[in-house]
Amino acid sequence: MATVTEIRQETPTARTLVFDVPGWPGHLPGQHVDVKLTADDGYSAQRSYSIANGDDGERVELTVQQVGDGEVSPYLTEVLEVGDQIELRGPVGGWFVWRPHSSPPVLLIGGGSGIVPLMAMIRSRGKSDTPFRLLYSLRDPGQLFYARELEKVTAGVEVAYLYTRTAPPDAGRAAGRIRAADLVAYGWPPETSPDVFVCGPTGFVEAAADLLTELGHDPAKIKTERFGPTGG
To answer: Tens of pLDDT along 162-193?
Structure first.
């Protein structure tokens, strides 16, 4: 069982849950866990959530965005309190991961809550000299996860925000969906052969992956993880 030790509100509808997980075996940035909730009558529901932190002993962080008609996310974002316990299984996954000993430049492209596993990669970078670039696509400034931390990222990590609905006056880019010009301006050129990780809603991930291949990026270097509009 995992015990909640801290809760941080990220946006009005999303929060980060910090758990103490005795016997946690460690994890790679990009992996996820399965969270299972069981009601008093025995009914259970299970959902997968990306791990938000780097490997840190028995500490596991999940950032959960509430889904209006979801079965699990409303409980995690509105009901769960410090001291509560839940069933948590993992880590799960071995493909959509960044291994800190890797040396190619890294391009992270996140849509909405797809930033979560990418943030784990940034947090795991540590003293590595691997250069990172993050393109973070979100509807408006009010949906920004990890705002304060992203403002203070270390040297070697460049962050660009792509607003799709409402952009702040100083955005330097009109609101709109991700396009090839964004990848040229803020990403790595194909000749640098970066490791690319794309995570977000299905439509966003497919669009970004198509643009990357059209620009000449090696499809074998593009790893994607997507989630649908329902569930939670």
So the answer is: 999 999 988 888 999 999 999 999 999 999 99
With beta carbons less than 8 A apart as the criterion, state whether 213 and 123 touch: no
Q: What residue spans of 44-174 are helical by DSSP H?
A: 73-74, 115-124, 147-151
Buried b or exposed e, range 58-95, using 16+ CB within 10 angstroms: eebbbbbbbbeebbbbbbbbeebeeebebebebbebee
Q: Which residue has the tokens 């509808």?
A: 13
Q: Is the pTM of this model over 0.85?
A: yes
Of 3.30.1600.10, 3.65.10.10, 3.40.190.10, 2.40.30.10, the CATH number of 2-92 is 2.40.30.10
Spatial distance between the Cα atoms of 162 and 31, rounded to a whole number of angstroms: 25
Instruction: Establish whether the linkage from the previous residue to 91 is cis, with ω within 30° of 0.
Output: yes
Q: Where are the domains of the chain?
A: 2-92, 106-227
Measured distance CA(193)–CA(107) in Å, rounded: 10
Which residue shows structure tokens 């996860």?
145
- DSSP letter at 56? B
Distances (CA, A) of 14 to 30, 133, 202: 19, 24, 20
Question: Distance from CA of residue 4 to its chain's centroid?
Answer: 20
CATH for 106-227?
3.40.50.80
Instruction: Give the separation between CA 161 and CA 132, rounded to whole angstroms.
Output: 14
Render pLDDT for 57-100 as a digit per residue (tens, 0 to 9): 999 999 999 998 888 999 999 999 999 999 999 999 999 999 98
Amino acid in position 39: A
